[in-house]
Write a structure and sequence with these properties.
VC0802-like, elongated, alpha/beta, binds adenosine-5'-triphosphate, six-stranded mixed β-sheet, binds magnesium ion, 390 residues, Rossmann fold
Length: 390
């Protein structure tokens, strides 16, 4: 099949260094193919870049699917032309004409790359000739540095093409490059965003949700499944573990001091999440904690919670403002679901006066008096696995 349009995908320098390049490129290639599943396209790897061949009509849809794929720095829709200087000139004219229909352009330049050294004209000469054609047609001034419009010409071994756009990619590292982590996913605004940021740095996610029926209803659970589905789009498939938390939460509430209740729940969550993480080969726990956002999320309290696990606990939103988190949630399409009014923690379980600066020794002491170890084991063992996406 021969296609008229090419999407050029450039990936970051970050992983070009080192011996991992082949691994990263393979992952990125798989993620790219997955993002384009079901579309009539061909994906090709070429010297530190990828090419997607498609029809011109499909190109906007292809771009929409590829823009969110982590690992690409920029994307350019390009037009394939014959390996001939006149063909390059007329394609350049047509492409510039389209840009001029859409926006004002004060100046332009042509940047040429010739990796096929058998092409008879050197790069500067190609640039001059294509530039001259465009100049003569539109009388548009040439500006070599800081031009409004850059026409890229590339004479490659496999094909020759031109492009006039560089769309910013999602950046980051290919999902999977940094291994797997366990996200504590509640129904709130923060945790899906935290998961998204870890995906951006190459982590693939598993997730765990602590469900306390009948205090938290089925709709709260459905909401979490929906959020998991949403974050799954970046990685293909994800296992969400739904842990029944009711008995444990009731016991901790009834037998522990009320002001430490939330910390005791969170410690129990850490223990269960750590066990699931180890079983699922996850190397860290991820939460949506944000410093000082609610009274319980003080450094002292975070310390008391973290003490319950040996695992690495990462909180990518710790230093974000609420506004920044909401903006991101809107961008990744989780906000609307997150604000649905089905609470993840029943008011019954939140004490009136939670400790804001809990002392670790006191927390440990209170916990030691509660017999809950078997409930942790049971909750872990009975976790329900829901396969999202895939
Ligand atoms: P979120 O919007 O993510 O719920 P929040 O600001 O409401 O965050 P908390 O409810 O205090 O904060 O929870 C802090 C973090 O603890 C959450 O971001 C999440 O990672 C984890 N967490 C809390 N409740 C649950 C739950 N029921 N299941 C899984 N994780 C939870
Ligand atoms: Mg919450």
């Amino acid at each position: 099949m021969s296609w008229d349009t090419l999407i050029v995908l450039r990936h970051g320098e970050t992983f070009i260094k080192g011996g991992n390049r082949g691994f990263f490129e393979r992952l990125l290639l798989n993620n790219t193919k997955r993002a384009l599943a079901g579309m009539d396209v061909e994906v090709e790897r070429d010297q530190g870049r990828f090419f997607v061949h498609c029809s011109e009509a499909a190109s906007p849809a292809v771009l929409r699917r590829l823009q969110p794929v982590f690992g690409f720095t920029s994307l350019s829709p390009a037009r394939i032309v014959d390996r001939d200087i006149d063909a390059m000139g007329s394609a350049g004219i047509e492409m510039v004409e389209r840009v001029l229909e859409e926006r004002d352009v004060e100046s332009f330049c042509v940047k040429t790359q010739r990796s096929d050294k058998t092409f008879p004209l050197p790069s500067p000469e190609v640039g001059r000739r294509v530039g001259a054609s465009i100049f003569m047609r539109f009388n548009l001034p040439v500006k070599l540095k800081g031009a409004d419009l850059v026409v890229g010409v590339e004479i490659g071994r496999k094909q020759t093409f031109l492009f006039v756009e560089r769309i910013a990619g999602a950046g980051g590292l290919p999902v999977g490059a940094s291994g797997k982590v366990m996200l504590l996913l509640s129904g709130g605004i923060d945790s899906p965003v935290a998961g998204h940021l870890m995906q951006k740095r190459g982590c693939s996610l598993s997730a765990v949700y602590f469900h306390a029926p009948p205090h938290t209803g089925e709709r709260a659970r459905d909401k979490v499944v929906q959020l998991a589905e949403r974050v799954t789009t970046r990685q293909g498939a994800l296992d969400l573990f739904v842990v029944r938390f009711t008995e444990l939460q009731e016991r901790l509430r009834n037998q522990g001091p009320p002001d430490l209740a939330v910390i005791l729940y969170r410690r129990a969550m850490m223990r269960i999440a750590s066990r699931l993480a180890a079983r699922e080969h996850c190397t860290a726990l991820i939460t949506g904690d944000n410093l000082g956002q609610v009274a319980s999320q003080t450094l002292e309290n975070l310390r008391c919670v973290e003490d319950a696990t040996d695992m690495l606990v990462l909180r990518p939103l710790l230093a974000f403002d609420k506004r920044e988190i909401i903006d991101l949630a809107e961008r990744i399409g989780t906000y609307e679901t997150s604000i649905l009014p089905f609470e993840d923690t029943c008011s019954l379980f939140v004490p009136k006066h939670p400790a804001t600066r809990a002392k670790l020794a006191k927390v440990q002491d209170a916990e030691n008096r509660i017999d809950f170890a078997s409930l942790v084991e049971e909750a872990t063992a009975s976790a329900e696995r829901i396969r999202c996406g895939g």
